Structure formats: C-alpha cells, structure tokens
C-alpha cells in the first residue's frame, strides 16, 4: 500500500516539524511506508519568502538573512534525517499535473493546512485537489486555525471536502465549521498528531540540556512588548532564571537569555525540563501538557481558538491568562493525572479512527 500525505512540513516552525514527524510515525503504524508531498507554500521559499519578510524594505531582508541560513540547516537537517519526502518538488498547480502523485490512499495532514489567513487564501492542493476521484481521501487532524470561514470561502471549501471519505479536525471549532457552515457530517475531532504519543515517546528523542538550574522558558511566536513585560514580572515573582527559545536572530534583543534557533529536538528538551513555560504557541502549550510542565498561556490576538479549545478539552483553562495583568496562572495548579487520563483517551480515539480507515481500504 502506498500512502501520500500533504502537510506544511516546508514551514520553518518547530511545531510544524514535530507534527509532521508525529504524523509519519503514527500513520506508519497502520499503513506502512508513507511519503510527504514535497510541497512548499509560496511564502516559504524564493521571492515569496523575501516578500514576506522584507515587506517592501530590502533592509528587513538583509537582517533576516542569517536566520534564513540557520533555518535551512536546522530544519533541513531534521527533514532529511526524519521525514520521508518526495524527491520531486511541487511548487505550483502545473507541477501536480506534470508529475502526478500515485498512491492508494491520500491524506491531508495536520497543522493549519486550511487556515485561509496564514495561507493567504484557499490552497486547493491542501484539500487534496490533485488526488484522483476514485482514490480514498482522508484528513488527519487538519486545522482551520480559526473559529469560522467567510461566506465567500464556504462554496470552494465544501467542493473539496465533499470528496473526503472521513475528516478529522484538530479543534472543536473546526468540527463546528464543517458541520454547521459546510454541512457535512463525516467529521470527528481528534488531537494534534504530536499528542497521539505520550511524553515518554518524545523523551526518547530529547537532547542533553545544557541548562543546569531551574528556569522559565519563553516560547513566543508573535512580537508583543506586553508579552515580554509579563514574562519579566513572572520572573520577579519566582526564583527562576529566564530563557528565551529564539526562533530568529532578531529575538536575541528581547528579555531572557537567548537559545538561538536550537535543533528541533531541543524544543522537547527545553519544555520538558522547564519549571514554567510562558507561550502564545499551540504546540508549546500542547507539549507542556503532554510532558506535564507548568505552562502560562498568553493567547495571540489572531487564531487563538486552537489553544483555547485544547485547554478546554484538558480542563486546564486556568493556565490561560485573561490579560497581561492577570497573574493567576502562576498560582494555578494543573491536575496532571486528569490531563494524562484525557490525553490517553484522546490517543485511543486517534487509533480507532485510523483502524477504521485501514479496514475501509482493505
């Protein structure tokens, strides 16, 4: 059996890489060898990447260049060593016509593959538009990353999703979009693939931590001075040193001792060993829960529904700060036994979903 998966593995984001890794490992348990389509979103390479970061200012691109070089090494090495990716590259619609992807079953993977905001509109290929009509198509924890679709997007999204045999989405809001806005019922909510494995699975690929004292870890994806001031205040209220997981070189000027673009596996290490994680990232929140690390969540202004849905699922909404002046999450004690029980139940749901697909294909 040949299994093809399309996701956003070309995006240089730690959570994106780890969800791709988890997707591969989990699908391999049921379908043997799987292969990711070597697709890259237009704003992740070449001119599109330059335009995304330069924003009309060449100096911004020059400042970004060192980060880009480091990303190519760190993310490129992880993909080369851990992910099965097609040799053929797919960059535009014509590529899918010139080099058809032949498989027995097709999946659209996790992460925000259906987020029209991040993707600058609907990308048909991320809805398996290229897959033959007579081949089974499934969504594995695909995410809209938002609470609703615009009326203009609904007809096109429905056209693509009607071709799927089964759909699983990552958030409660995503399930609501498909049931209520799209009008389809063959949908189930499943956790992000990184949560299809427990904390011990991830500790197997941990690196050795160079920090040998208690610390607070910042993992901040959105530039926000209020976030930094909040983190500094939390540091004052504890005896822990502050470290920042820097995904770009320009973040070194921010508060906290810089950990500059570490290896992908270091993401697990630094979260697992931290006393507190302060974040606006879904995956940092998810890994904190899975590794039983205390987390304080400052949701971003946009696309925060996925974090809120997850914390609601695990009954840990007390870890979410209501504002940049709300320090109650510091005193909040998460019930990790209860969280672990919920995550175990959710892993079972994922296995049942994939087992049903395996039986259908046979």
What report would you give on this structure?
- The chain is 42% helix and 15% strand.
- With 362 residues, it is α/β, with parallel strands linked by helices.
- The chain has a 7-stranded parallel β-sheet. A 5-stranded parallel β-sheet has the order 10-9-8-11-12, sandwiched between helices.
- Helix 2 (46-54) packs across helix 3.
- The protein starts with a strand and ends with a helix.
- The mean pLDDT is 96.
**Helical segment count:** 13
Which sequence of strands runs across the widest sheet?
A: 3-2-1-4-5-6-7
Low-confidence runs: none
pLDDT averaged over residues: 96
Which secondary-structure class do the elements indicate? Answer: alpha/beta
Instruction: State the shape.
Output: globular
Query: What's the total number of strands?
Result: 12
What is the ordering of alpha helices and beta strands? EHEHHEHEEHEHEHEHEEHEHEHHH
How far apart the termini lie comes to 10 Å
Instruction: Specify the biggest β-sheet.
Output: 7 strands, parallel
Instruction: Classify the helix fraction into a percent range.
Output: 40-55%
Radius of gyration: 20 Å
Q: Strand share of the residues? A: 15-25%
């Amino acid at each position: 059996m040949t299994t093809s998966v399309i996701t956003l593995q070309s995006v240089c984001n730690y959570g994106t890489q780890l969800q791709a890794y988890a997707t591969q490992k989990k699908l391999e348990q049921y379908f043997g060898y799987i292969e990711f389509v070597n697709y890259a979103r237009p704003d992740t390479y070449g001119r599109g990447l330059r335009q995304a970061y330069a924003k009309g200012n060449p100096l911004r691109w020059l400042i970004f260049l060192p980060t880009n070089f480091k990303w190519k090494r760190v993310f490129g090495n992880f993909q080369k060593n851990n992910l099965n990716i097609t040799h053929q590259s797919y960059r535009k619609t014509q590529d899918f016509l010139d080099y058809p992807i032949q498989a027995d079953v097709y999946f659209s993977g996790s992460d925000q593959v259906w987020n029209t905001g991040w993707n600058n509109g609907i990308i048909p290929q991320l809805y398996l538009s290229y897959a033959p009509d007579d081949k089974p198509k499934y969504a594995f924890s695909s995410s809209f990353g938002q609470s609703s679709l615009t009326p203009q997007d609904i007809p096109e999204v429905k056209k693509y999703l009607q071709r799927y045999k089964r759909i699983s989405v990552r958030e409660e809001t995503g399930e609501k979009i498909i049931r209520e806005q799209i009008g389809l019922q063959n949908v189930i909510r499943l956790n992000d693939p990184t949560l299809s494995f427990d904390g011990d699975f991830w500790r197997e690929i941990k690196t050795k931590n160079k920090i040998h004292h208690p610390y607070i870890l910042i993992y901040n994806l959105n530039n926000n001075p209020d976030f930094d001031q909040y983190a500094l205040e939390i540091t004052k209220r504890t005896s822990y040193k502050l470290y920042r997981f820097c995904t770009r070189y320009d973040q070194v000027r921010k508060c906290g001792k810089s950990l500059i673009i570490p290896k992908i596996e270091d993401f697990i290490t630094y979260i697992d060993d931290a006393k507190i994680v302060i974040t606006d990232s879904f995956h940092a929140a998810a890994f904190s829960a899975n590794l039983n690390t205390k987390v304080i969540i400052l949701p971003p202004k946009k696309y925060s529904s996925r974090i809120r849905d997850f914390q609601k699922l695990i009954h840990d909404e007390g870890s979410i700060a209501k504002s940049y002046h709300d320090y109650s999450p510091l005193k909040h004690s998460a019930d990790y036994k209860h969280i672990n029980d919920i995550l175990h139940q959710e892993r079972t749901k994922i296995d049942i979903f994939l087992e049903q697909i395996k039986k259908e294909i046979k």
